[in-house]
Amino acid sequence: MYLTLKETAEYLSLSEDQIENLILEKKIRALFDGEQYLINKDQFKTHFEQLEKYKALIEEYLKEPIPEDIDVKDED
Questions:
Q1: Which one of 14, 38, 56, 64 has the minimum C-beta count within 10 Å?
Q2: How far apart are CA 33 and CA 18, in angstroms?
Q3: How many whole angstroms separate alpha carbon 14 and alpha carbon 8?
């Protein structure tokens, strides 16, 4: 499925200018049909999958209790 520049900006929560810059920097693949850029939506699937994995890893890390260090002395 192909998206226009505006649709891609909404999908990625970025501005249209940022999307156009990413296209010109060749960080996003796009077709130019003579009037507008067309961006394949599937190229972002892997990116969003990786984001979900990283979010899960961060949540897991934050849930781990802080281990007590046996060398720490209470200075009361």
A1: 64
A2: 20
A3: 8
What is the arrangement of strands in the sheet containing 31-32, beginning at the earlier edge strand? 2-3, 37-40, 31-32
Model confidence pLDDT, tens digit, residues 58-67: 999 999 887 7
Q: Is the pLDDT of residue 45 over 70?
A: yes
b or e along 41-63 (b: 16 or more beta carbons within 10 Å of the residue's beta carbon)? eeebeeeeeeeeeeeeeeeeeee
For helices 16-24 and 5-12, give the axis angle rounded to 10 degrees: 110
Alpha helices (runs of H) in 13-76, residue ranges in sequence order: 16-24, 45-63
